[in-house]
């Protein structure tokens, strides 16, 4: 990265922090901090939803999927669209019955505080781990961009002569990303998160379009060559009707599994539901969620198109950078797009696309920090203190809790440097099977009236145990995890109620 690229990146980071400081002026209490007083426009919430579910891993990995494969990833995105419709019909009306800070307060109203605290605790732990590792993945990308410059390699070796330059740059990258994100989230709360998400969505889409335009112009023959080479390699294949539960990205695992996954992540996860709670009405929440599905679909078409063009470009050329993402004849797909960015983007534009990588990371990380703080304060601290402290006190606690979770996720990311990639992937998988269990207990609360608090706790336990078996002892694709976990939790809660009705209702308090 040249000084100009670094200046572009620095301006972007400083700008996001300044935006957070600007929005801090309008905060009076935790409702302002966590749900923005329910006054944000639907289109801003829509942009925030899209930006939040697009991490740096998505920005880098989806083009890699198309480079090595085809367009079958879109089957999962079709499932995302179906899941959004289910959330709109099943869950959105409940979010606007009363004044909620977290979605888990609905479980407290239905089952009691034990279920609410357990599910909220599951969310906090899995979110901290998963997003800590996502931060680590982002740091890898930025460190690779820095190390592509001989100047930065020399600086790393000069200041830390006994350390691996990659580790040095990784620690620096992680610290900068975390510090900037913690600061603007700490100051501005959910209002800053959502408006910076809108900016970040614009930045990373512009960055992707710039890279795609340069890539397109670098391919001799233009679209005719892209179409010929891609068709010959079946790169535009979209549907795979193979019935194999161990296989990713089939029609069945994509549409069915993706629908359950999105119903869980967008209907019962505080990270996403918190955005709907910022809407003025159920109508605005529905509009934001459904519109985000169309934008996400087009976005993934763009990312997959970039991956296809990368395949055509590197197949038709003898570019020396191929060696940078090929090890022992095996292509490391996550390195293909970053390699092109580093070696082909002109001065200044590299800084813009680096800012796009930052944007994808910071949108997810900031949302994670604010939603984790909302769960900790709304589901634990406020009930513990019975709301007897001042608004200023709770706002101060909310901010410091946000900073605390930022430090936790940074520590997880730093710890990941010493872990193998296999361990990283396993930890990221935690969210997949916990989402199913959480969806199952929400379905118990929404679709039944006779299931009690004890039965719900049994369902959560049974669903978690089954998902551990599925995760550790079967080859089942992760795309089925939410379906399996939710069905297991729902059925277990129902069965124990039918078999042991007196025990499950013993000591049950009316909600």
CATH hierarchy: architecture of the largest domain? Up-down Bundle
In the CATH hierarchy, the third-tier topology of the largest domain is known as Sodium/glucose cotransporter
Backbone shape: globular
Distance between the termini: 59 Å
Give the strand content. Answer: under 5%
Report the CATH C-level class of the largest domain. Mainly Alpha
The Rg value, from CA coordinates, equals: 23 Å
Strand order of the largest sheet: 1-2
Written description of the protein model:
This protein has 511 residues and is mostly helical. The protein folds into two domains: 3-419, Sodium/glucose cotransporter; 429-511, no CATH class. Helix content is 76%, strand content 1%. The protein contains 22 helices and two strands. The chain has helices at residues 3-23, 30-35, 42-52, 56-68, 73-90, 92-95, 105-110, 113-147, 150-159, 165-218, 222-232, 251-267, 270-276, 282-315, 336-344, 349-385, 391-416, 421-428, 430-447, 453-473, 481-499, 501-504; strands spanning 326-327, 330-331. The protein has a two-stranded antiparallel sheet. Strand 1 (326-327) and strand 2 form a beta hairpin. The longest helix is centred in the middle third of the chain and has 54 residues, at 165-218. The protein is globular, with a radius of gyration of 23 Å.
């Amino acid at each position: 990265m040249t000084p100009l690229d670094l200046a572009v990146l620095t301006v972007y980071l400083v700008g996001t922090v300044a935006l957070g400081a600007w929005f801090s002026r309008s905060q009076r209490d935790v409702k302002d901090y966590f749900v923005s007083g329910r006054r944000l426009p639907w289109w801003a919430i829509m942009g925030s939803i899209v930006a939040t579910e697009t991490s740096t891993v998505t920005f880098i990995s989806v083009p890699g999927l198309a480079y090595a494969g085809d367009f079958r990833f879109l089957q999962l995105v079709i499932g995302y669209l179906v899941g959004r419709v289910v959330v709109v019909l099943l869950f959105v009306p409940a979010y606007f019955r009363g004044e909620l800070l977290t979605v888990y307060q609905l479980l407290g109203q239905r089952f009691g505080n034990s279920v609410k605290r357990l599910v909220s605790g599951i969310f906090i732990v899995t979110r901290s781990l998963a997003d800590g590792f996502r931060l680590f993945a982002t740091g890898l990308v930025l460190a690779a961009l820095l190390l592509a410059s001989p100047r930065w390699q020399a600086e790393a070796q000069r200041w830390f002569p006994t350390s691996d330059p990659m580790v040095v740059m990784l620690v620096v990258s992680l610290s900068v990303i975390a510090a900037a994100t913690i600061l603007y989230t700490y100051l501005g709360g959910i209002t800053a998160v959502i408006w910076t998400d809108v900016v970040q969505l614009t930045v990373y889409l512009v960055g992707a379009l710039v890279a795609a335009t340069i890539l397109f112009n670098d391919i001799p023959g233009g679209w005719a060559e892209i179409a010929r080479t891609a068709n010959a390699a079946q790169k535009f294949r979209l549907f795979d009707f193979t019935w194999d539960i161990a296989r990713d990205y089939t029609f069945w695992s994509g549409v069915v599994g993706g629908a359950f996954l999105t119903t869980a992540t967008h209907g019962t996860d505080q990270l996403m539901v918190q955005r709907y709670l910022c809407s003025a009405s159920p109508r605005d929440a529905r509009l934001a969620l459904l519109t985000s599905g169309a934008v996400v679909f087009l976005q993934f078409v763009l990312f997959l198109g970039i991956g296809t063009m990368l395949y055509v470009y590197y197949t038709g050329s003898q570019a020396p950078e191929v060696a940078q993402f090929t090890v022992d004849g095996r292509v490391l797909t996550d390195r293909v797009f970053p390699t092109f960015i580093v070696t082909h983007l002109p001065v200044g534009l590299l800084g813009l696309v680096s800012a796009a990588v930052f944007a994808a990371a910071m949108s997810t990380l900031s949302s994670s920090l604010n939603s984790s703080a909302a769960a900790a304060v709304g589901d634990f601290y406020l009930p513990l203190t019975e709301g007897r402290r001042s608004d200023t006190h709770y706002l101060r606690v909310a901010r410091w809790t946000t900073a605390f979770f930022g430090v936790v996720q940074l520590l997880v990311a730093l710890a990941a440097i010493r872990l193998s990639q296999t361990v990283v992937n396993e930890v990221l998988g935690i969210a997949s099977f916990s989402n199913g269990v959480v969806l199952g207990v929400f379905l118990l609360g929404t679709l039944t009236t006779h299931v009690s608090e004890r039965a719900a706790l049994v369902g959560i336990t049974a669903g978690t145990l089954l998902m551990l078996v599925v995760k550790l002892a079967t080859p089942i694709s992760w795309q089925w995890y939410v379906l399996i976990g939710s069905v297991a939790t729902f059925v277990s809660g129902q069965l124990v109620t039918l078999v042991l009705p007196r025990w499950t209702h013993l000591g049950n308090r009316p909600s």
